[in-house]
Specification:
The protein has 205 residues and is α+β, with helices and mostly antiparallel strands. It contains seven helices and eight strands. The strands form two sheets. It has a five-stranded antiparallel β-sheet with strand order 3-2-1-4-5. Strands 7-6-8 form a three-stranded antiparallel β-sheet. Helix 4 crosses helix 7. The protein binds zinc ion (ZN). Zinc ion binds next to strand 7.
């Protein structure tokens, strides 16, 4: 089957605990250090097999083949991709079965990143994720004072809207945020604004 590696933890003797997001599951797997093993890393898309064993509760990860991205040697893209995909691990912690939305979202994103700027592509995917999870606040009420936001808007973690005057943080024109939230368009954002959004995403999904 195929999946995305969302977390790797080193354990004894160079063995690894590898968490993988597939179309339907989050798998926690065990990878023995061996002579014949392909290079694996967070963010990689892999084809793999799982071997279950009576002695261990964690299935063994085997027959791993890395499925490359066209941009895998573009350091900037790979870096952004890895930072983003790592956030799925705490976000989906303690979840075993998932909807194929997540796998498909990452598939589409990896494809879009061939041509698009990675941070812009990731921001748009993140909006889709929030929308899917019912966490995209298109009523534009301030998280802090609960009043409607009519003009300048700021965003806090998970892109929650707040009044710029309630947080004293960077403000955006409401029109621009509406474009992003409702039309999933980021074209009118300056690079420096996209950077700002990117940093909010890094606080956690
Ligand atoms: Zn407010």
């Amino acid at each position: 089957m195929q999946g995305y590696i969302i977390d790797i933890k080193a354990v004894k003797d160079d063995d690894l605990i590898v968490s993988i997001l597939t179309e339907s599951h989050i798998y926690t797997t065990y990878r023995f250090y061996g002579a014949r093993h392909s290079n694996i890393n967070v963010g990689y898309k892999i084809d793999f097999e799982l071997e279950t064993n009576m002695k261990s509760s964690i299935p063994r990860l085997k027959d791993v083949i890395q499925l490359g991205f066209q941009w895998i040697f573009d350091n900037d893209k790979l870096y952004c991709w890895q930072r983003f995909i790592k956030l799925f691990y705490p976000h989906l912690k303690d979840v075993e079965t998932i909807d194929d939305f997540y796998f498909k979202l990452l598939d589409k994103l990896s494809h879009k990143m061939i041509k698009q700027n990675p941070k812009r592509a990731i921001c748009k995917s993140y909006i889709k994720l929030l929308d899917y999870e019912g966490r995209l606040h298109t009523d534009y009420h301030c998280l802090l004072c609960e009043q409607e936001i009519k003009k300048d808007i700021s965003l806090v973690r998970s892109f929650m809207p707040v009044h710029a005057s309630c947080t004293y943080s960077k403000s955006f024109k409401l029109k621009k945020i509406k474009e992003l939230y409702e039309e999933k368009r980021i074209i009118s954002f300056e690079d420096e604004e996209v950077d700002y959004l990117w940093k909010i995403i890094l606080q956690g999904l």
